[in-house]
């Protein structure tokens, strides 16, 4: 059973999400919040598998709430809801540690599949959309505090030092928006081998999921805006 916390400042929106989620045999809504403060407090107390997080809310927005939830070490994963696919707020939410985002007018089955994916540790953003989002906004927000030497030479970045040459290569093409199938085909590897490499990259860098790996590739200058 996947437990979900719904956070949105619109009561009618929360009601609609609850009705949809509770129609599913494998999901249950453990709580509802109306702002980021509620999200942080209720995540700590309820420990949901997934926080369905509106991004623009009064008091504390979804970006800051996501940042605090991730910083707390909670196992809960955040799925952001946004109005536009290329949205600076969505980008900031991913940088804060969200595992993905969905457009608010997504089809019900897209929302359900997104929640299920996030609950199992997957990321819910198409690789190419992640790339487009980062290309659009990476120059407008802080890069994460890398020092100048590490930024000039990605190989010297401490988060990449434990990676093998092959793992660094795969992280680079993940950042460029390649799927596992594309990596396997273009690098002449079995897809299962690619999945193993991706798992090792996440473990070695501390990235929570594929979205965070893409952001890491940008932050360490392995990939630059096109």
SSE inventory with pairings:
Blueprint: E1 2-7, H1 11-21, E2 27-33, H2 36-46, E3 50-54, H3 62-71, E4 77-82, H4 88-96, E5 100-103, H5 108-119, H6 127-137, H7 148-152, H8 165-175, H9 180-187, H10 191-205, H11 210-219
Features:
Rossmann fold, Arc Repressor Mutant, subunit A, 2 domains, 226 residues, alpha/beta, five-stranded parallel sheet
What's a quick, concise take on this entry?
The chain is of the alpha/beta class.
What this model shows, in words?
The structure is a single chain. This protein has 226 residues and is α/β, with parallel strands linked by helices. The protein has helices at 11-21, 36-46, 62-71, 88-96, 108-119, 127-137, 148-152, 165-175, 180-187, 191-205, 210-219, and strands spanning 2-7, 27-33, 50-54, 77-82, 100-103. The chain has two domains: 2-125, 3-Layer(aba) Sandwich (Rossmann fold); 137-219, Winged helix-like DNA-binding domain superfamily/Winged helix DNA-binding domain (Arc Repressor Mutant, subunit A, Orthogonal Bundle). The chain has eleven helices and five strands. Strands 2-1-3-4-5 form a five-stranded parallel β-sheet, sandwiched between helices. Helix 9 packs across helix 10 (191-205). The chain starts with a strand and ends in a 7-residue tail after the last helix. Residues 3-119 form the Response regulatory domain. Residues 156-221 form the HTH luxR-type domain. InterPro entries: CheY-like_superfamily, NreC/VraR/RcsB-like_REC, Sig_transdc_resp-reg_C-effctor, Sig_transdc_resp-reg_receiver, Tscrpt_reg_LuxR_C, WalR-like. The modification 4-aspartylphosphate is found at residue 54.
């Amino acid at each position: 059973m996947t437990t979900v916390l719904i956070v949105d400042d619109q009561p009618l929106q929360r009601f609609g999400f609850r009705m949809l989620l509770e129609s599913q045999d494998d999901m249950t809504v453990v709580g509802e919040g109306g702002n980021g403060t509620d999200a942080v407090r209720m995540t700590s107390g309820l420990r949901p598998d997934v926080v369905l997080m509106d991004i623009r809310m009064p008091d504390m927005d979804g970006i800051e709430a996501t940042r605090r939830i991730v910083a707390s070490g909670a196992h809960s994963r955040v799925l952001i809801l946004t109005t536009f696919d290329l949205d600076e707020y969505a980008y900031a939410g991913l940088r804060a540690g969200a595992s993905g985002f969905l457009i608010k007018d997504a089809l019900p089955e897209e929302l359900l599949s997104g929640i299920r994916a996030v609950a199992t540790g997957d990321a819910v953003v198409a690789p190419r959309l992640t790339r487009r989002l980062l290309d659009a906004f990476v120059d407008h927000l802080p890069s994460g505090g890398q020092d100048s030497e590490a930024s000039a030479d990605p190989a010297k970045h401490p988060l990449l030092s434990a990676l093998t040459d092959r793992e660094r290569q795969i992280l680079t093409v993940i950042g460029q928006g390649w799927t596992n199938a594309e990596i396997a085909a273009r690098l002449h590897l079995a897809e299962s081998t690619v999945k193993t490499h991706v798992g090792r990259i996440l473990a070695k860098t501390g990235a929570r999921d594929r979205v965070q790996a893409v952001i890491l590739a940008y932050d360490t200058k392995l990939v630059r805006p096109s």
